[in-house]
Write a structure and sequence with these properties.
heterodimer, A: mainly alpha, 2 domains, 71% helix, 0% strand, B: mainly alpha, 2 strands, globular
Chain lengths: 211, 544
């Protein structure tokens, strides 16, 4: 844990130095600008420049990082006293499986659409990480994105990404026309019926002691 | 302003069907969110904030989105006790103290008594705090109407200083968190000069990157948005990243998906017996209600220290302190009354001064700004149609919360049996969908997930993240007020710390900003003073 404390503080310190450098940058169109000129406290009688606040905040970050490093050297902070590893085997595996799943989810959004990506992610999580029964996993990973689709795209008209053009044309355009033609009561019924199916499957899985 | 007629009008609007429905839904959602381990009021409010855009559009009622979020906040405070008592895992940090006596009660077969005690104490704490709020808020806002830019900046400085002096976390890490949050708020266009700053991948850098890939923008991920960072870093991106993704990763790692529930029998008769038994808990409830409110007002303090302090005071003043920790109902009543009372207390500085008293109120404050409201003293003068229905909804939500809580305890227990491997992906999905719904931009979603991973690593290393969230909310205003003050003083910082600085050329003395600034300086220096005192005492002891 102590090494992680050092490494993190050094990385954050370097980030602070970069941000200080970046704060001193002038507008691109001003070719006569001299770096750091905007970090002054009173520029031409018009108060602090635009870089003043970010520059000194980044400096504050740097000072904090140096303080963290000193504490780690003196072993006064709890992580620098801890003999536990920063990430044990479980944490590494968890981060790889869950984090990897999340990254995969984000990549899939632009390809197969938000709702299909949700279905794939839910299925992956429940089946592989949660080891839930196939039936429950499949039904949950279909019902959750369906609810979200009805809520965001249909009821609230907050449209989510639809993936590649042919997917949108083949699935979402006809589905959108169908559901938008339905009354509010029908939409609520869709929520309730799909929820009832999910509850039945979950209860059945629980009775079998596998959920 | 006559408080009573305004409050009656507010109550009338709060019980209108759409507001009442929002309060009920908010309370139910909040109870679930609070009861689920790993999620607290701040997670619930942050993840569900994007949904309020829709409520705002659908109802055209300025108070409606806030009534919904405030109800989630209340509900979560009630809900935290459910998992503390039945699972032995606090639903949120605000319910940690409830575990001390709630869990032993459950293990002795008195889970129902503990749950009823928690619900009733929460109701009393919330109601007492709302009464205080109704009395204090107009008073405080009328005083704050005279505040100028230096006073407002000094108050913000005080908010950050309390995190350093009273937060109880590692000081350099807290300071880093504050500076980082403030810095994130500066990304985008400078509000005063209108010039871009900290725009990563500016035109020059883009040309260099494009040169490396043969001038093909498609070959570089996220390159479609030249103006990605010029829009600034949106508050929700950080809040959902920290509280949706980071917190869940941390909870998964800490709990390893394993929780066990105590056997709980609930019936109407047992609930009634629990209500009658509340007469034994008057002391803890009173301490929690009063202490919770005043601790809640302090920025950086919030409900968690409020509940812990109330538990400590209740134990200290008890005739039988040894019974605490063994299943004393007063040990459940005190923290539960306190966390509800503190949640209302934390709203007082947020609404009257624009300074949030807790991470959740920081998110609520950001929400108010998004809906076009300006939290601060003028809110009571300019937007009474928002303020009083909201205060009215505090009373209504409290009542709704206690009824829903008592009526649906069996349902919550059933939900708590839901495996974490189903809950976790749902939270991840809601975080991602919610962020996209708020900004219609996949880059913000990527950034949110990136912040989530960063938050997880920093959390493992004990970096407090609530100060960063508070700072990113207050950052823009803090900078604006500081620069406008310095513009007034020709760059002289004495405007903040000297009462004799002549602001307007009339020789008037200004005391509020200097007093606030000096209190902030003392708070920042407090840990160093305490450290020095400890060293001196240690030295004297060694000499002795």
């Amino acid at each position: 844990m102590r090494r992680a404390e050092f490494v993190t503080a050094i990385i954050l310190g370097l980030l602070s130095v970069y941000l200080m450098w970046k704060a001193g940058e002038g507008p691109e169109w001003d070719t006569e600008y001299v770096r750091w000129a905007n970090t002054g406290i009173n520029i031409d009688g018009s108060g602090p420049g635009k870089g003043f606040f970010p520059f000194y905040l980044a400096l504050g970050m740097l000072v904090s990082c140096i303080w963290i490093i000193i504490n780690a050297i003196r072993r006064t902070s709890p992580p620098s006293q801890s003999v536990e590893p920063f990430m044990d085997g479980y944490a590494k595996k968890m981060l790889l499986m869950v984090g990897g799943g999340l990254i995969g989810f984000l990549i899939l959004i632009d390809i197969i659409s938000m709702y299909a990506a949700i279905a794939v992610f839910m299925l992956y999580y429940m089946l592989i990480l949660g080891r839930h029964p196939v039936g429950l996993s499949v039904v949950t990973s279909l019902v959750v994105p369906f609810w979200l689709y009805l809520f965001f795209d249909i009821v609230m008209t907050k449209v989510q990404p639809k993936g590649l053009r042919w997917i949108e044309d083949a699935i979402y355009t006809p589905a959108g026309s169908f559901f938008r033609d339905q009354s509010f009561v029908t939409i609520v019924l869709c929520f309730v019926v799909s929820g009832a199916i999910l509850t039945l499957v979950a209860r059945s899985a629980r009775r079998q002691g596998v959920a | 302003m006559d408080i009573l007629p305004a409050l009656m009008d507010g109550l009338w609007i709060a019980v209108q069907p759409h507001n009442l429905a929002l309060a009920v839904i908010g309370v139910v959602v909040g109870l679930f969110v609070g009861a689920l381990p790993g999620l607290g009021s701040v997670n619930g409010v942050a993840i569900l904030l994007p949904f309020t855009f829709v409520i705002n559009e659908a109802t055209s009622d300025p108070a409606a989105p806030m009534i919904f979020l405030a109800a989630i906040y209340y509900g979560a405070m009630y809900g935290g006790a459910i998992s503390s008592i039945t699972l032995g895992i606090p639903g949120a940090s605000t319910a940690v103290a409830t575990t001390f006596d709630g869990r032993p009660m459950a293990l002795k077969g008195n889970a129902d008594r503990a749950l009823v005690t928690a619900a009733i104490a929460s109701f009393i704490g919330g109601t007492v705090a709302t009464l205080f709020f109704t009395g204090f808020a107009p008073l405080l806002s009328s005083v704050a109407l005279d505040f100028g830019n230096p006073e407002i900046f000094a108050l913000m400085l005080l908010a950050f200083a309390t995190f350093v002096g009273l937060g109880g976390d590692d000081i350099p890490k807290t300071m880093f968190s504050i500076f980082f949050g403030l810095l994130l708020a500066t990304v985008g266009f400078d509000t005063i000069s209108g010039e871009p700053r900290l725009i990563f991948l500016n035109e020059r850098e883009q040309a260099a990157v494009l040169g490396m890939v043969g001038g093909d923008p498609e070959a570089v991920p996220f390159f479609d948005s030249v103006a990605w960072f010029s829009r600034g870093i949106q508050f929700l991106v950080l809040a959902i990243g920290v509280y949706g993704i980071g917190e869940m990763l941390w909870t998964i790692n800490a709990s390893r998906y394993k929780v066990t529930m105590a056997e709980t029998k609930i019936s109407f008769k047992r609930i009634m017996a629990g209500i009658v038994g509340m007469k034994d808990c008057w002391k803890g409830t009173t301490i929690g209600s009063l202490l919770g409110f005043f601790v809640g007002i302090l920025p950086a303090a919030g409900a968690t220290p409020g509940s812990l302090m109330s538990y400590g005071v209740a134990k200290m003043t008890s005739r039988n302190p040894r019974s605490y920790g063994e299943g004393n109902p007063d040990g459940v009543a005190a923290p539960e009354a306190a966390n509800n009372s503190a949640s209302t207390g934390a709203m007082l500085p947020m609404m009257t001064l624009g300074i949030p008293g807790s991470p959740t109120t920081a998110v609520l404050l950001a929400g108010m700004v998004i809906w076009g409201l300006e939290p601060g003293p003028r809110l009571f003068e300019d937007r009474p149609e928002f303020v009083w229905p909201l205060i009215g909804s505090f009373y209504v939500s409290n009542l709704v919360a206690v009824i829903v809580n008592l009526a649906f305890i069996p349902l919550f227990l059933a939900v708590l049996r839901m495996p974490f491997t189903i809950l976790a992906p749902v939270i991840f999905v809601l975080s991602i969908v919610g962020t996209y719904a708020a900004y219609d931009n996949m880059n913000d979603v990527w950034l949110m997930v990136l912040f989530g991973f960063g938050a997880y690593f920093l959390r493992v290393l004990d970096y407090p993240l609530a100060p960063a969230v508070l700072a990113v909310v207050l950052g823009t205003t803090a900078e604006e007020k500081m620069r406008q003050s310095l513009l007034l003083s020709d760059g002289d910082f004495a405007i903040f710390y000297s009462p004799f600085f002549d602001r307007d050329g009339k020789g008037q003395e200004w005391w509020i900003a200097p007093i606030t600034t000096w209190v902030a300086v003392i708070l920042i220096a407090l840990p160093i003073i305490l450290w020095a005192m400890r060293r001196m005492r240690g030295g004297t002891a060694a000499e002795g």
